[in-house]
Every structure is written in structure tokens, then in C-alpha cells.
Amino acid sequence: MGQEELELVTDLYNMFVTYMVTYSFQIFGAIVVLVLGIFVGRWVSNLVLALCGKKSLDITLSRFFASAARIAIIVSAALIALPKLGIQVTPFLAAVGALGLGAGLAMQGLLSNYGAGLSIIFSRPFVVGDTIRVEGVFGVVKEVHLAYTLLSNEDEELILVPNKHIVGEILHNSHTDTVLELSVGVAYDSDTDAAIAAISAKLSKIDGLSEERAIQIGIDEFGDSAINIAVRAWARTERFHQIRFAANQAIKDALSDANISIPFPQREVRMLS
After folding, report:
1. What fold characterizes domain 125-174?
2. Cys-Cys crosslink for 84: which of 1, 30, 123, 126, Cβ 3.0 to 4.6 Å?
3. How far apart are CA 132 and CA 255, in angstroms?
4. Of the CATH numbers 3.40.50.11540, 3.40.190.10, 3.30.70.100, 3.90.740.10, which one belongs to the domain with range 176-257?
5. Model-level pTM?
6. What CA–CA distance (Å, rounded) separates 247 from 182?
7. Domain Mechanosensitive ion channel MscS spans what residues (predicted)?
């Protein structure tokens, strides 16, 4: 090691010792303030979450308020601790502001997601547990974050939808259920009242269909080969396809038990001489 390197190391060592002697108690105090801020922030967050639960506030709003309270306390503790380390807060805040402006211009898409997330949290077009359909996908709302909304479907897939694709778009909210639409054709000489009654009786025994909303059954249209009977019911979203399969089987069994035939497609062809 040369003389210049040795002098540099000595200067750095002396600087470190001087800093520790001068700010040793301040450093200890800053660490204490930060640790207390973290623990107090966590305690206040849990307290806010409990209070929101007692007031029966929506879980999305409850989590938002709890997280905001925790972050505010931790940031306040950091602002108190930094001056104890000899760091001036004012230039730091100015630098953060300038950096935030540049980052904001570079991340407009992300910021639009955050803005849309705040709109969802406060306007509450849906809550956790609702079934929504947007941008060609549907599922049960599991979590609502500032940047995205998390959905889950019957296949236990997690669908992450950026919030900017929810706010301002056409949104379908069917709450806990999803509309199930089915259709079946019966012969023109069939007793349609008997067919509708048989289908209704069978479908009422299927587990998973809504008991609060009545099943709608009626003649949908007069087809080329059959009278088409339409069925509209509300099924649990978490078991939608399973219930749909069971409902189709129930419709077939109901018509078979009532001796009502499901005709094959037919077409009449005339030969003209």
C-alpha cells in the first residue's frame, strides 16, 4: 500500500470516528424512533382494521385505511429520524419531489392504475366477493389493490386486471352469482306447459342455483324443427360450469321422464319438375 492510499484510509477512519463520536447518541435515537415507528404503525394499522370491522365497513376500504395509517406513521418516524443523523430533510424532500415528477411522467400508465384504484375504493362499484365481468373476463373479486384487482374463477385461476381497464369501461356486477342461460328444443306437438313444469321441478333440486332469484323458463322461439324453451337461472360463480353441466343433464332427464321428445334437426326438401 502506497503512502497516498495509507493517508486516504487514515482520513476515512478519522472521519468515521469523528462522525460516530459526534452522532453516536443521535444514531441510537434515530434507530429507536424508526423501530418505534414501525411497531406503532403496525399497531395503529391493526386498530384501524378492527374499528372498520366493528363498523361493518367494506373490507377493501378497511385495508386501504389501515395501510394508509401505517405508511403515514412510518414516514413521519423517518422524517423525525433523518435530522438526528445529520441529514437535512428539506433538500431531501425537494429531491424526492423532483424525482417524483420525472417518475410520474415516465410511469403514466402505472399512475393511471393507481388513480383508477382510488376511484374503485371510494366509489365501490363492487366489493370483495362480488362477481364482475369486464374486458371479456369474469370471476369473483378476491382482492382490490391500488394498481390492480384480483379475480378468481372456477378453475382457481387468478386473473389480474389493471384498474385502468375497469374504470370507464362497461362493468357487469352480478354479485355472488353468474347468469346461467340454457336452451332446449321440444317437438311441435309436445305439451309445452308440461315440459316447462318438468324442467322447473328438476332444476329446483340442483345445489348451487340461487334460492333468492326465481328460475325463469319460457318459450324462446319457434325454430325450424322444434319449439325452443329457454332457461335463465343464477348459479354460484365458483361452480358455474359444474352447475351448468348438472342443469343440462336435469333438463334432459326431465323431458325423458315426461315423455317429451327432443327432435332432430329436420328440413323439408321438395323436388320441382
Report:
1. SH3 type barrels. (2.30.30)
2. 30
3. 34
4. 3.30.70.100
5. 0.60
6. 8
7. 110-174
